[in-house]
Amino acid sequence: MSTIEKDRNILTLINVFAVAPDKQQELVALLIDATQQTMKRLPGFISANIHCSLDGKKAVNYAQWESMADFEAMRKNPEARPHMQAAAALAQFDPILCEVSNALSAE
Amino acid sequence: MSTIEKDRNILTLINVFAVAPDKQQELVALLIDATQQTMKRLPGFISANIHCSLDGKKAVNYAQWESMADFEAMRKNPEARPHMQAAAALAQFDPILCEVSNALSAE
After folding, report:
1. Mind listing the pLDDT tens digit for each residue in A72-86?
2. Rounded to 5 degrees, what are φ and ψ at A54?
3. What is the DSSP letter of B94?
4. In sequence order, which residues have a C-beta less than 8 Å from that of residue A43 and are 6 or more positions away?
């Protein structure tokens, strides 16, 4: 289980992948494998939450890192690179680096 | 605090807004107001988690509804419409309806 909270000083990375519907499940499996094999062990990793769109055309990774420095270190890590290249071969993506402005729940 | 979990039978709506950087904070305030004034009271609302991108060009709402029927009812609700029109006047957006395939945390 992952949590979203206001005023938690972390980096949130929202990565929307555009994918052919017949490749969506392959992409989702690849993102889960990349997290379990590599990302989970890297310093500053908090969570990766893999979503698939109901129309089959997208996948979304809602990921959390302790800091921008940890995220940048992951991007330069040789262990992470093959996973990112494999994702790039299947889908187009454009990561959004952001912070939580507010987390509002039902009363 | 909101939570992301696998095998929870809910609808996740990830809405990425493209916005002019000088309008980002206005958009974020509008999304928070819409949630607090209207969405929070609607049947099936679980959470809305408003994010702003560090480059100023995006906002993302990570929202959770109990079911597609609840989400569709919100979209047809006359109380919700003015909020959606106000957001459309400030930003372009394309909601992604999805489900959680996996939620993976650091060990």
Report:
1. 999 999 999 999 999
2. -70, -25
3. -
4. A66, A70, A73
β-sheet bridge partners, residue B29: none
Looking from the CA of A71 toward its CB, the CA atoms found within 13 Å total 18
User: Exposed, middle or buried: residue A14 (CB in 10 Å: 0-12, 13-18, 19+)?
Assistant: buried
pTM of the model: 0.96
Residues B35/A101, Cβ–Cβ less than 8 Å: no
B77 touches chain A (CB under 8 A): no
Domains of chain A in sequence order: 11-98 (3.30.70.100)
| Residue B107 scores a pLDDT above 80 | no
Nearest by CB to residue A2, choosing from B4, B46, B55, is B4
ipTM, interface predicted TM-score of the complex: 0.95
- B40 contacts A100? CB cut-off 8 A: no
d(CA A67, CA A70): 5
Contact list in A for residue B35 (CB cut-off 8 A) is 102, 104
Assigned token pair, B58: 């995006």
